[in-house]
Amino acid sequence: MQTRTAWQAIAQRPLRFLTSSWPWRSLAYLVSGVAVGVVTGLLMIGLAAAGVLLLIVVVGIGVLVVTALAGIYVARFERWRLRLVDLDRAPDPHRQPSAPGLRAWLTTRLREQATWREFSFVVIWLGGLWFVDLGVLALTLWLPFYFMSVPIADPNTWPWMIIGIAMLLPAPYTITAWAGARAALTRALLAPRDDELGVRLEEVTLSRARLVDAFESERRRIERDLHDGAQQRLVSLSMNLGLARLDAAPGSPVETQLAAAQEQVSQVLSELRDLVRGVHPQVLDDHGLAAAIDEIADRSPIPVTVDIRLPGRVTGAVELTAYFVIAEALANIAKHSGASQATVRGRLEPDLLVIEVRDNGVGGADPADGTGLTGLADRVAVVDGRVRLSSPSGGPTLLHVEIPCHSV
């Protein structure tokens, strides 16, 4: 197993530890910590003092903001210096600004918890942490060498040399142990794993939402192209076939073939309308969720009772998600449940759209069976909603969907 931290170096190779580079790396970490602490302390104290003094001319506010933001760069240097005793890279917890420019950068940084956590770390570091580093170095190195130097001035005090040597022997372990503890504290404050995971999850969620928005925009474009292009040309073709039938002799082979062609065009038109409706339902845009679900219920092979009462329209993404969830649920009921009746209920609670789809079928619905329930749950998850399913063997089945939203 590869040694990644100072603590691992002591624990995994205690006998070979003294001949490794870890004691020297740890010493460099603590010495540089003291040096940087002194320099940073002088700069930060100077900026803070200047900011307080200049408050009377407003400029001090800007100086104090600069003082707070200076913690970002101190923390960045600390994460780099951490590699002396912790080989795993400490990720930068800051998000990318939402727009280019100084104003967007300042707004993002001042609103981030990471910025203020880094400033707090700097305050802790300057308030006492570098003093502890200095104290450990003094107790483990300066004091033993001081005791060892006493007999030089007075040979009768040779026992002090033995004491100094005895104190110096464990110094590499003491320095490395404290350097490891110091590094663990630094990582916990400047690169917490929970924050790193949270940032990644947020990025994944935003990326998924952007992909869904792009997908829905493409669906709308395809719907418009089919409606305004292929569908209109088929209607025109059907009309031309009808006019041609009028010119043909009734009952003739030509009239029969034209009638068959017109019937096929009508079937294609009907299938195309269903396809367009599946790509993006126009009735949903025009009349809202309740009307769109009524249309689905009218086409359902089993009776469906629709009870959707909303005080107004909800946002487009929520409305579209609810529509396809209900459509998929009713399709599953028709295919798999053996039900003779289904009910769709929708209510808008405070900032929450609640949809329930019930049926009196045989139950036993399981997402693992590939009945579309997994895809349904994924679609709801994109808008931060959740799905609960109750489907005991023998029925009935209840699909409960909650989607965060607000009316418009």
Automatic annotation (TrEMBL):
Lineage: Bacteria, Bacillati, Actinomycetota, Actinomycetes, Micromonosporales
Catalytic activity, as annotated: ATP + protein L-histidine = ADP + protein N-phospho-L-histidine
UniProtKB keywords: ATP-binding, Kinase, Membrane, Nucleotide-binding, Phosphoprotein, Transferase, Transmembrane, Transmembrane helix, Two-component regulatory system
GO MF annotation, one: kinase activity
Domain (Signal transduction histidine kinase subgroup 3 dimerisation and phosphoacceptor): residue spans on this chain: 218-284
Cited Pfam families: HisKA_3, Sensor
Transmembrane segments: 26-47, 53-75, 119-145, 157-179
Enzyme class: transferase
Organism this protein belongs to: Hamadaea flava
InterPro entries reported in the protein's UniProt record: HATPase_C_sf (IPR036890), Put_sensor_dom (IPR025828), Sensor_HK_TwoCompSys (IPR050482), Sig_transdc_His_kin_sub3_dim/P (IPR011712)
Domain of life per record: Bacteria
Domain (Putative sensor) ranges: 29-190
EC numbers on record: 2.7.13.3
PANTHER family: NITRATE/NITRITE SENSOR PROTEIN NARX-RELATED, NITRATE_NITRITE SENSOR PROTEIN NARQ
Protein name: histidine kinase
SUPFAM superfamilies: ATPase domain of HSP90 chaperone/DNA topoisomerase II/histidine kinase
